Structures
1.
Amino acid sequence: MAAGAREAQVRRCDVLVCGGGVAGVAAALEASREGARVILLEKTLLPGGLATSGLINVYLPLCDGNGHQVTFGLAEELLRLSMRYGPGDIPDWRAARNGGGNARFRVVFSPAAFVLALDEALQDAGVELWLDTLVCAAIVEKASESGARRVAGIEAETKGGRLRFLAHTVIDATGDADVAHRAGVLCHDEANSLACWALDANVLADAPTTLQTRGGRIGMLRVGGHRAEVGAPAPWHGLEAPEITRFALEGRAQVRRYYREAHAAAGPEARQTHFPIALPVMAQFRTTRRIEGRERMRPGEMECRRETSVGLAPDWRKPGCVWETPWGALLPAGIGNLLVAGRCIAAEGDAWDVMRVIPAAAMTGQVCGLAAALAARGGSSPEDLAVTEIQTRLRAKGFLLHRDEVVR
Ligand SMILES: Cc1cc2nc3c(=O)[nH]c(=O)nc-3n(C[C@H](O)[C@H](O)[C@H](O)COP(=O)(O)OP(=O)(O)OC[C@H]3O[C@@H](n4cnc5c(N)ncnc54)[C@H](O)[C@@H]3O)c2cc1C
């Protein structure tokens, strides 16, 4: 191929966001609103990741269960967007004391409605969106003097062929740390239990609530479960195609079994009134890879003050518990110019369980988007930014950064 033709295959931007889940969307919106030229690459046709393609339709809380909101910014904006074209109500959460579930600032939404609103928000913000675009390699450079490694961009497979995307800063929001892993960053993985959430319709007005189905006539059928809930063996890692295939097929086999039994119990006509209407098009792994970061969130550290905190995440499992998110958990160890947002940040055990959910993913996405835009504007690498500058700007956007600020 001639040099000119090769050059035509290169796209450039200030901030390149890989993966259009909740974290990637938040990162792209924030960076673009901060004035950066942003490209967002997504391998499916839908923004939203597990929250839309994966049918995970419970936007866990922004509050601590005691009437205090602790997560702000795009995490709240996206929660409200999830209801713009569909159902969902924010419960009365301000009066709650020690409140769980429906006494918290959370919402159950329609995944399809959320997609429509995310499309609109990305377009309004001027993000250049590439769907059906699979990130498949990291472009890593070595600085000539120090020998330090930095990510300069990625290669992506598209219908039109393989393209190179070069950026001032790259954000890995793939959920699986695909960019970090391919750039040689040390990553850890954990086992999952089987999960398959499917949309279930039961159109008989007087239909009894079906097993594990919530929300009335259209609800979510959930098979499998979190290993802490079901105590089930958790052999699934989600890192190889044959295993991902078995995971998807086993989940769907369990959904089939459910309908076979439900139809057998209710009689032959039940097939006409009670049936599946949507299956996840993304494997529902809670965790695949997470990065080794410059800082790490560890189990039991919910009481810890982190001086580098860039945001608060309420513990969705335990009212009253709030975690501080250290900036270094979004910075992969040993490489420059790369930020990581969403469920693959450096958090383990119950810290990871708190940080992997939708509102925390949106929060870390926004922080990465802001930092990437600042780095691009200042001509620096994000790891060289002063954390105090990021913190000042986040506070100006309404963020709380430390647990002792929550009561004010
Ligand atoms: C069974 C289950 C139940 C859950 N329950 C809840 C719940 O009730 N409430 C809650 O808040 N959270 C829940 N979660 C967690 C939550 O859904 C996710 O962790 C969260 O949505 C993660 O967002 P993310 O943006 O970090 O990652 P993801 O949603 O995984 O998004 C990553 C995006 O990157 C794209 N991508 C990946 N690799 C590439 C690549 N190589 N090239 C291009 N694009 C790529 C994907 O297609 C996807 O769109 C649950 C998760 C599971 C699996």
2.
Amino acid sequence: METEILVSNIQRFCLHDGPGIRTTVFLKGCNLHCPWCANPENISFEPQQYFAREESKEPKGVYGKWMSLQNIYEEVMTDKLYYKNGGVTFSGGEPLLSMSKLEPLLKRLYQEKISICAETALFVPEEELQIALKYLDTLIVDIKILEEEKCKNTHGGTLKTYLRNINILNNADIDVIYRIPLIKPYTTEAENINRIVDFLQSKRYLAVELIKGHNLAEKKYQSLDKEWYRVPELSDEELCTIKSKILQNGISAEICKI
Ligand code: SF4
């Protein structure tokens, strides 16, 4: 039987998911549990019923649809005209966990010279990363918390795995965009920002993007009847202080609105 992948959404004309205009395929399933996750419907590896916001517990729909690689290919290729400077991005969830299942599709897009990008937290097995490196031209990689215990306690990831993968990326032929989610207090503490600055000193990258945390996923959490973390507002002053700290160290970073 042909491989099927659990897709929660395919979004067209995306301008912040890699270079140019892109079609983004959101895959379900993530091995982390960041309290601030903006895509809570993509954490579970299973289809999930969701409910109307109101008190009635009548199911309103299901997050996640099994799609064959052929179906995904046909969907993304309807936008081929827009891929001159753009392409296809896989997001999630953690799309790098699905690289081996996606490989025939990645190979086909690669052979047809379609740019492929993925957004990743990078806490993934090396074998999956190696498949990505065969076909993808760009990776957007989160830098969240660079301290082992805090990582484990906050989102459950093993920092050693992340750093091993970063090392592989740093020596690979792929464009890397680092993305720093600014989530008070988890990632914004001065100690963490200092670690991020030190970390970036020795890394090769195309760009560094600062993303201000937000609460836009509130309705999704409610629809899943799931507890959520209200991200405290980061003031303009705090944002400028963090950006200046990074710039002062010779790292050119941009605030990215997504
Ligand atoms: S890694 Fe991304 S998708 Fe996974 S829980 Fe964290 S924010 Fe959500």
